[in-house]
Design a protein that fits this description.
558 residues, 14 helices
Length: 558
């Protein structure tokens, strides 16, 4: 973690944007604006965006122009106490200013007919509106219109990440293009208008400059076939999360990291100010300072089973010169050297979460180099285990390991993935070192006989009683919202169990290979051998529950 530096973060400016859609023979099309090239705004200069801009101080006074939506209802949809309708007004105003489409209706409820207006006069009205020399109220009064806010639906909420010189808190809306109107560029802020399918807009060959929010929005729009589908999805009452990218860096330089990417939560923890110097890549052999007490080093053993590699963690009291190593990882010379080089003090203990061969074998080399004793447990079954691991101290559930006055670990026995699996709770940070009990981006293999599905589910549910803020997994970045992760993992396993039951009911009797094709049909075939182990764990659990039976390798419901 880099040393904190003073960093100015401007308050985000409130903005609204409207995504205008239309149906065409080619499918759903979206209106894109290419911003004019401006040397003063490198970020948005030349970018393809949706119509939109900042809220105006006068938007609050235009609520009486709105049809079918009041401020209380609009504010509730946006999660605001008041002023929600301002965003609808701003979105409609900006759409007219920038694209020449006026989302307004006449007294009969018909879309505004702009064809009667002289094109030069219409362009002048848009420019004057943009310059603040005219206003929407007088325009609507002159043309006998009301704003069709009931035809504009809340779609998403995005916040510019900390660290940017300009920040925007933008609400995105979606609407159908008004019948009979033609989109025309304003020739000031907008250089070009384009009607494109979402797939065309994000295609590499089109080479549009797309901001992350625009690209992600287009990906979502690509899932709809018609305007009606998109509007129906946006009209459903729902909680709309605020999506705020975070700035990170990698081998190819900095970029925004989106919510849902593995490194997102860790970047937020290590760089809340938005310096942009935290890596979104796990680089083998690199020491990453996760807190004053924790340093992570990742082994160069990435694979389908280990993800980006196995994490080793150093834990220490900042006021002491010794440290404890959790999960030394594979017995690889370069990795062992990296651990010895990056230890934040003299290694006096080696703890392992379990003895699978990507987690514990380097313990012997580190012990020989440092004399540090080994802590952990031996598995009940030897298959797939590191036979070289022999603990000097056998740990039990609830044991405490004091690392100093302000640093202590509590042992949490979590069998299931392995009978000897342990997690370690760093109480001062409410952080759990999870080994393989919980992984990032994947579920773990439960491999009988040492693996046990019921024990795994019980151990997962037991974590809900712990006061947790963070997970430090054996593979991946730091994970936030631990209890949500636990609940999702339990739900996933129970859903998979339900698929096993359905497959047994459908087949009557079947062996593991036949069931695998149905129960794990979405899993790539190279992973089927691993999936078959977890499938067998589900079947053994169902048998123990009295819900399934096995006869000569064929399984059926009891």
């Amino acid at each position: 973690m880099s040393d904190p530096k003073p960093h100015h973060n401007p308050a985000p400016r409130l903005a609204a944007s409207v995504i205008v859609l239309r149906d065409s023979p080619r499918g759903l099309e979206v209106l894109m604006l290419r911003r004019a090239e401006r040397a003063s705004d490198h970020h948005q200069s030349g970018a393809a965006v949706f119509p939109g801009g900042l809220l105006d101080d006068h938007d609050r006074g235009r609520h009486a122009l709105c049809r079918g939506l009041d401020d209380a209802t609009a504010s509730a949809r946006l999660g605001l106490h008041e002023g929600g309708l301002d965003y609808w007004v701003a979105a409609i105003r900006e759409c007219f200013e920038e694209a020449g489409l006026l989302l307004a209706v006449d007294a009969a409820g018909r879309w505004a007919d702009l064809s009667a207006q002289d094109p030069a006069t219409l362009r002048d009205r848009r420019h004057r509106l943009h310059a603040g020399e005219s206003d929407l109220t007088s325009l609507c009064a002159e043309w006998g219109l009301t704003l069709a806010t009931d035809a504009v639906h809340y779609f998403s909420h995005w916040l510019t990440p900390p660290g940017r010189p300009k920040r925007f808190d933008t609400r995105f809306f979606v609407a159908e293009a008004p019948t009979g109107q033609t989109a025309i560029a304003d020739e000031t802020e907008t250089a070009e208008l384009m009607w494109l399918t979402p797939a065309e807009a994000i295609a590499p060959g089109r080479a549009l400059k797309l901001l992350p929010v625009t690209r992600e929005t287009l990906k979502t729009l690509a899932t709809y076939n018609t305007v009606a589908e998109a509007l129906a999805a946006a009209s459903v009452p729902r909680d709309v999360p605020c999506m705020m990218p975070r700035l990170g860096t990698g081998a190819k330089g900095p970029r925004p990291v989106l919510p849902g990417e593995w490194a997102y939560a860790e970047i937020g923890r290590l760089d809340p100010e938005g310096r942009g110097d935290v890596s979104f890549e796990l680089v083998p052999g690199r020491a990453v300072r996760l807190s004053p007490r924790i340093v992570r080093v990742t082994a160069d053993n990435g694979s389908m089973m280990t993800g980006p590699g196995t994490n080793a963690y150093f834990v220490h009291d900042p006021g002491r010169s010794d440290c404890t190593l959790i999960d030394p990882g594979p017995d690889d010379d370069a990795h062992v050297r990296a651990l010895l080089d990056h230890a934040p003090g003299r290694i006096t203990r080696i703890l392992v979460t379990h003895t699978h061969k990507d987690h514990s074998p380097a313990a012997q080399a580190i012990r020989e180099a440092t004399g540090a004793p080994l802590f952990g447990r031996v598995a009940d079954h030897p298959e797939w285990q590191d036979g070289t691991f022999k603990p000097d101290h056998v740990l039990s559930h609830g044991d405490g390991v004091s690392l100093g006055l302000d640093c202590a670990l509590r042992v949490v026995h979590t069998p299931g993935h392995a009978s000897n699996h342990l997690c370690y709770l760093l109480e001062q940070e409410r952080l759990l070192f999870t080994g393989d009990h919980l992984m990032q981006g994947s579920t773990v293999v439960i491999n009988p006989p040492d693996g046990d599905m019921q024990a795994y589910l019980d151990a997962l549910n037991a974590l809900l009683a712990l006061d947790l803020e963070w997970l430090a997994p054996g593979h991946g970045f730091l994970i936030d919202r631990p209890h949500d992760v636990v609940r999702r993992t339990v739900a996933h396993r129970l859903q998979r169990e339900a698929k096993v039951v359905d497959a047994l009911r459908e087949s009557g009797r079947a062996d593991v290979d036949a069931l695998l094709a149905t129960v794990y049909q979405e899993v790539p075939k190279p992973l089927h051998a691993m999936a078959a182990r977890s499938l067998r764990a589900h079947l053994l659990k169902l048998r123990a529950d009295g819900r399934a039976r096995e006869d000569a390798g064929l399984w059926s419901l009891s």
